[in-house]
Design brief:
The protein has one domain: OB fold (Dihydrolipoamide Acetyltransferase, E2P) (Beta Barrel), CATH 2.40.50.180. By secondary structure, it is α+β, with helices and mostly antiparallel strands. The chain is built from three helices and eleven strands. Strand 1 and strand 2 form a beta hairpin. The strands form two sheets. It has a six-stranded mixed β-sheet with strand order 8-1-2-11-10-9, with helices on one face. Helix content is about 20%, strand content about 45%. It is globular, with a radius of gyration of 17 Å.
Length: about 170
């Protein structure tokens, strides 16, 4: 019995650790959220310098106040159809931790929605889809504003190898 309550305690702690403020954004009609502490700034679309021989989801690099930052299109990374950029399309500049290093990266999203304070009770574990889908980059599902927001672990969206590739693109 103590073993079962220990598992429940761990699950409650895991959800409590995920509680907090999230920047929510839209991507192909779905709502996502990333921890606000990972977000450095939100900028409108700007010219992206294409770097040859990079994966399609790596759009290239931008010069942000003298810093060269790799930019990925989250739609393409998630194998969604690409879309024309609009006046609402923007780049969220995030800080990603990988292999003990911090990397600044831009992610292109359809539009930014709002900052939500999500309580532990509103977050559920990522459901099992019954197949070997890689869902480790999903922190959980938040029930908020009458819908579901998919909470992302931005540190796990790109693999270590992909981060090295993106970092080498930025020089």
């Amino acid at each position: 019995m103590a073993e079962q309550s220990s598992v429940i305690d761990q699950a409650v702690k895991a959800m409590t650790d995920k509680e907090g403020k999230y920047l929510t954004f839209s991507l192909a009609g779905e709502e996502y959220g990333i921890g606000i502490l990972k977000v450095k700034e939100i900028i409108g679309m700007m010219p992206v310098t294409v770097v040859p021989q990079t994966p399609a989801y790596i759009k290239g690099v931008i010069n942000l106040r003298g810093k060269v930052i790799p930019v990925i299109d989250l739609r393409l990374k998630f194998t969604m159809p690409s879309a024309e950029y609009t006046e609402r399309t923007c780049i969220i500049v995030v800080e990603v931790n990988a292999a003990g290093r911090t990397v600044m990266m831009g992610i292109v999203v359809d539009s930014v929605s709002e900052v939500l304070n999500i309580k532990a009770g509103e977050i559920e574990e990522t459901p099992s889809f019954g197949t070997k889908l890689n869902t480790e980059y999903i922190l959980g599902m938040a029930k908020a504003s009458g819908g579901i927001k998919i909470l992302l672990d931005i540190d796990k969206i790109l693999s270590v190898e992909e981060l090295h590739a993106a970092r080498s693109v930025a020089g």
